[in-house]
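Worked example 2:
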Amino acid sequence: MCINNFEAIPKIDSTTSNVFILIYLTRKIVLIGGTQYAGEMKKSMFGVMNFLLPERGIFPMHCSANIGKNGDTALFFGLSGTGKTTLSADPNRKLIGDDEHGWSNNGTFNFEGGCYAKCINLRQDAEPEIWNAIKPGAVLENVVLNDNIPDYDDNRLTENTRVAYPLDYIPGAVIPSVGGHPKVIVFLTADALGVLPPISRLTKEGAMYHFMSGYTSKLAGTERGIKEPKSVFSECFGAPFMPRPASIYAKLLGEKINKHNTVVYLVNTGWSGGPYGIGTRIKIKYSRAMVTAALTGALDIVKYRHDDLFNLDIPVEVPNVPSEILDPKNTWSDKDSYKLSAKKLAQMFVENFKKFHNVSPEILNAGPKS
């Protein structure tokens, strides 16, 4: 039950705000109140799925998924604002789904059958699939209309301007929305400190470490009170929706990677040349080129260098991407400031991971060094 105008009274109801989302698994009841955002409905059911499916040997995932012309499936994990929906909507690949999936012994499958994409600063040339899906039958949410024409640049908009539309509004979408076992997984982060490399390759243990960490920067407008990017860790790239311990989901991930020889990359769609306010955000065309290189196997044949601080393997070249941006410190004019910021973020990773107990040494050693 979703009752938009019914609000909690925190002092009486012991809630942290007037908005509430209550899930009672045993009685199979979800109560939502006080919100003017439809996403809580789908995310509540996602939370239920995340509780039930691991017992059935199915890995539930907060990710988007697509499939190539040769039948190769790819997954994209990432929190709000990292480009998960944008980068998985690829004209050269078919979309399986943009947000919620399961990985079973038979392959991957979508939970929803639809998409729920951001609209703020939407551009037809940058995101043509989303732009063209906004037609009769789609639902715009929190978007300003000027003379009945959507204005995606209005200064009143927040990151939670959205459009919901059926999956078949995306040309070539996979119907029914199922795929094979993923050949490539992409973890997306938007590092506002500007120190993570734009792309790096992870070992299985490194993938489990970064999956449990779920690092990104919350962007202005994604949550009340966020005025500028803030570094956060959200385990499994979706902590509020993961009712079981992160280690359970990470174990499923590791087992699937092992069984299907899946390659995992960490892609930073955040800042380059300095932190937010000094540097600039990495161009979407470069992020697309890096993802394309990962999916086509182009990164299987290039040389890598190892970054000791972040414990990452970084390609020295990527087709259609300037080589100088692949090493973050090369883009900073103040190298000492880069070193300080890099050490700061590495220490944040280490401190955050202390909340996990009984983690194997192999996973611990795969992360950044303090």
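The first helix runs from residue 10 to 13. Residues 58-112+173-364 form a domain with the Phosphoenolpyruvate Carboxykinase; domain 3 fold (CATH 3.90.228.20).
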